[in-house]
Amino acid sequence: MNPLQDYVRYETRRQFFARGKNALGYAALSSLLGHSFRLWGEDAAAPAAAGPGLPHFPPKVKQVIYLHMVGGPSQMDLFDYKPVMADWYDKDLPDSVRMGQRLTTMTSGQKRFPIAPSKWKFSPAGQCGLWMNTELLPHTAKIVDDLAFIRSMHTEAINHEPAILHMQTGSMVPGRPCIGSWVSYGLGSLNANLPTFVVLVAEPTNKEQIQAISARLWSSGFISGEHAGVSFRSAGDPILFINNPPGVPSELRRTQLDGLRALNELTYRQVGDPETHTRIQQYEMAFRMQASVPELTQVANEPASTYELYGEEAKKPGTFAYTCVLARRLIERGVRFVQVYLNNWDHHGNVAGRLPSQCRDIDQATYGLITDLKSRGLFDSTLLIWGGEFGRTIYSQGGLSKDNYGRDHHPRCFTMWLAGGGVKGGPSTAKRTSSATTSSPTPCMCATCTRPFSTCWGLTIGALRSSGRAWT
User: Fold this and answer.
1) How do the domains of the chain map onto residue ranges?
2) Which candidate in 50, 73, 314, 397 could, as Cys together with 321 as Cys, close a disulfide (CB 3.0–4.6 Å)?
């Protein structure tokens, strides 16, 4: 028998803690001191490296603008160039390509699934040479080098409500906190007089097929209600009852809120519900917003250069361009997360009549927003997200002609882009730049892509790698 092993085996708890008191004490001290605790010989004046649990690179993103195109934009009519599809016009989608993909009830009864190539002109844009729809998106083409495209987006949801809910909360079942609520919860407020998370719903010019947008999309779910999104209206007062009724001065409103707070505190001591404190905070925020929101929404006071940048539509309350100006003003004032919704991207029919209108709504406004953020030094710390809840099919829903067609939902492959916040745009398509200007991209025959599978995923991985700093 080894005496040392016997000693360790039969050592009592009290002996162990007595023998290791110095080591345990140092461990406790280091956890309390945090970044102030440095190794022997380390320069105290030097900047601290990434701490425990922090990424290698310092975080860049401080604020987020999420532009959600409700309905699902058609990727092959906007950003995914598929020239070989012209040779497949009106031919049936092969079963080997569809591979059992389920259909919505809107096309499940069709006898044919004819291929519908895009009717618009695509050309290379920017230094990266990305082939995109420059006919409908000429302003976006000017900033394409700032955008990182993710072409391999996919989802299990095939209908709008669960798909949008999945994009916003990570679950198709209601009840989870949305992404804006998590940002509010994790990063906190930069402005005590404005909500941390604001929701703006823009009005599209064309309103042929509007989808429902419910408040569950900006719910805080199971975390505190103070992190839920605050929806600003597109017309009239941005928030209902933001102004005091006639004859009620601010001093009287303050007295009322103080009395209400006392009653709520009494209720909290009796019941102990933490949401009571959330209600108190919401009342206090509403009182502060009575002074901050009217100044925020004075978009008419913007200089003429703003409307030259965003377009004349920015003068009309409720338009997407107006909403983008308001989003920039919110970011300037320290709002952490701005969620913008634009409806009517559900192109089951009349793509030729509806898509140009949708593109006019977003094209110059998006260009103006990114350019404006750059000029104000906010672009590098603000992450922009653009995309919908799914994509559209390569085959036509309903009748097909050279000039018009419809597209059904397609969850398995769609495109989104990121910009700002450390995202490295452009190089995600740099591999194709040299050949793209002289020849068409090499096609494949997957359901919604014309690139070879390896190249398709190679570009996607390249985009993710180049934009990796956006998440660190």
Assistant:
1) 64-238+297-471, 243-292
2) 314
